[in-house]
Amino acid sequence: MHEKTTLNQIKNRKTKWLFSFLFLVFIAPINAQISAVEKIASYGYSKRFSDSSASKKIQQQALALAKKKKNIDDEVICYSYLALTQRRLLHLKEFTRYADTAYILAQKSNKTRVKAFASLAMGNLKSYIDDKPQAIDHLLHSYTLFSKINAHDQCAKIAADISYLFSPASPEKVHKYAQEALEHAYKAKDPESKLYARLAYGGYLTDKLESGTEKDWQKTLDFLKTTVVLAEKESFDIISKSNIGIAYINLADLYSKGPKPINETALFDNLEKATAIAKKYNIKIIYRSAIGLQGFYYTEKGNYVKAEMLFIEGIKYQLSLPYTDNYLLATFYNCLKEVSAKRHDFEAYYAYDTLFTKYNQLKYNETTQKLLQNADARFESSKKMERIKQLELENELEQQNKLLGYGIAGVLLLGLVFMFRSYYFRQRYYLKREEILKQEQTNSELKLQLMEKETIENLATRLSLERRLLRSQMDPHFIFNALGNIQSMILQKDTIPAVSYLNKFAKLTRQILEQSRKETISLREEIDTLKNYIELQQLRLNDSFEYAIICDESVEDDILIPPLLIQPFIENAVEHGLKPKPKEEKGLLQINFSQQTDQRNLICTIKDNGIGLTASRKLKTNENHKSLSTTITDERLAKMQKDHPHAGFQVLERNADNGETGCIVIINIPIL
User: Fold this and answer.
1) Cα–Cα distances in angstroms (integers) from residue 280 to residues 27, 273, 294, 484, 603, in the given order
2) Rounded Cα–Cα distance for residues 561 and 305 (Å)
3) What is the pLDDT of residues 449-462, one digit of tens each?
4) What is residue 15's predicted lDDT score, i.e. its pLDDT?
């Protein structure tokens, strides 16, 4: 809220804290609640200080887009932003129209954020036309709604504004809301909100100095110095430059009220910075306060010439502007009158008094006109609010009557339905009782038939899977190659290796046939079968690779597992990984067994140093080919997952960056 600080108040040392704020709304960091239209309106609102014409144009475009989409929520927020912008431009008529429109439309929305914006615009309007009780009510409502959606940046600024409205009547509430403004600002991590809140809290500390001690003055000084440091550090992100100027003015004013001797260097350093900001951004109240503080300081020191020069400089600067500020000119001429009186220059006093009378009359006329405008605005706004409340009450009563009528009709209808259903179901109960008994008998017969059918289908599926498993385990290529090797050995009269090869082949065939009919086999049997198979592959491939089977100490070799799960992966490792390796490179196949006791799983890890997955795929001519044995194994493991959810396997490429080639297969085998 804006508190006008006159030079007379500065002179009498009874001034309240110098605050002159324009309400600023940044894009809230609650992206999930902000629409694209609101972002456009918020962007336009952020330009109100640098380019007011572009600011209004962008916001009007956002409003047109909201109307085109027929989105009332976006319309309310656009009207609220436009209202706050018109306050910055001091256009009461447009300010009132936009705020009223936002507030009326918000009654049709159930969105918390939308209602919060409407109450914010209305609260600012009431504050602008000096209707403090209504302003506090609306801003408190807006503050509560924004708090619900954690819009901390908005809460910080609204809480600060509420603290100004409670000053000076209720110091406790001033402190309460200034403190809450600080808490919200630091949660928002927004430099603009942080400075806004710190100025409010600084105002509270300064007001306390009227009955405070030198220690309180030092505490307030430290707080305001920190505020200035933060404002300078984050000045690029602070749009409302007037707040930075106010921080300097507040600090300078505090120095002027401090213990004697006054720190003149610090006082004038802050006033110069405030004056620079006032001239750069054309902030009248900052410039007036800076000149006034300097002039008053020199007047008290008895340097009347310097004081007179400062006041005259202020008048020249004001007259150079394209508009006339009668309030400012009257204030400066009044100060010049007092300086002339102290110098006993009554001729100058008379000249200054003439000009003071002229501008004071103009100021009085402007003030009177503004008071009349504010009174008219309060009256019109009150009428609209009463009308809105009356319409809301009428709508509520109408809705209640409708609901009462619907309730009575509903009760009667339910009674009729209940009576009809009772009669209908009583008649049908006896008729259906016999039908239910017959149906239960029929269902029992169907269940028996279904169970028989499921048993036959499961058996057929199992036999089919076993046949496919046998075909996959006894790969025709492997059989033909094995028999060819035996024949070759016999023709070369290598009788002993041929007999050994034939024995291993016969043993392997017998093991596969026997194990394929079993539900479970021991780990010892599985390892024995794998050894036979691998050694046959070694003989077939002229010992081009070596192998090792390792069991961890925690693994017992008599645990029971599903049969023939591992061999298909050994086959893939040999055929597609080790066999294509260059003859001069020795292959290595490693099989490791470990156990997860808590999950009842046996983990089999198969490593080879073959050519790897990528190179193996390139050698295949049929891109769509998939190993039959691997597919069947996958189906078997999938069937086991119902009782053993961890059953399954994964195939990984070894890390080529470390100079490793080949694959790693990890199989989770359930322990049965």
Assistant:
1) 26, 11, 19, 100, 77
2) 108
3) 777 666 656 655 66
4) 36
From its phi and psi, is residue 98 left (phi > 0), alpha (psi between -120 and 50) or beta?
alpha
- Displacement of CA 658 from its chain's centroid (Å): 42
CA distance 618 to 154: 63
Q: How far apart are CA 229 and CA 247, in angstroms?
A: 10
Helices 523-540 and 476-491 sit at what angle, rounded to 10 degrees?
A: 60
Express each pLDDT in 28-77 by its tens digit: 343 446 889 999 988 888 888 778 888 889 999 999 999 999 999 999 99
Distance CA 538, CA 541 (A): 5
**Phi, psi of 205, deg, nearest 5:** -65, -40
Q: Which of 348, 367, 259 is closest to 6 using CA atoms?
A: 367
Q: What distance in Å separates the CA atoms of residue 162 and residue 138, rounded to the nearest whole number?
A: 10
Q: What are phi and psi of 283, to 5 degrees?
A: -105, 100
Per DSSP, the three-state class of 595 is: strand
Using CA atoms, how far apart are residues 168 and 187, in angstroms rounded to an integer? Answer: 28
Q: How do residues 528-587 score in pLDDT, each as one tens digit?
A: 989 988 988 888 888 889 999 999 888 888 888 888 888 888 988 888 888 888 888 889
Contacts of 188 (CB under 8 A, 6+ apart): 29, 152, 153, 155, 156, 194
Which residue, chain included where needed, has tokens 């910080």?
Answer: 156
Q: Is 664 helix (H, G, I), strand (E, B) or coil?
A: strand
Neighbouring residues of 205: CB distance < 8 A, sequence distance ≥ 6: 216, 219, 220, 223, 224
Say how many C-beta atoms besides its own lie within 10 A of residue 246's C-beta.
Answer: 28
Collect all residues with Cβ–Cβ distance below 8 Å to 285 and sequence separation of at least 6.
Answer: 2, 4, 5, 20, 242
Cβ neighbour number for residue 539 with a 10 Å cutoff: 19
Distance of CA 254 to the CA centre of its chain: 41
Structure tokens that stand for 633 in this block: 């194994």
State the pLDDT at residue 377. Answer: 57
Give 543's strand partners: none
Helices (H) and strands (E) in the chain, counts: 23, 7
Low-confidence ranges of the chain (pLDDT < 50): 1-32, 467, 470-471, 623, 625
Q: In angstroms, rounded to a whole number, what is the distance separating the alpha carbons of residues 98 and 78?
A: 9
**Inter-residue contact 562 to 520 (CB < 8 Å):** yes
Nearest to 199 by CA among 142, 245, 259: 245
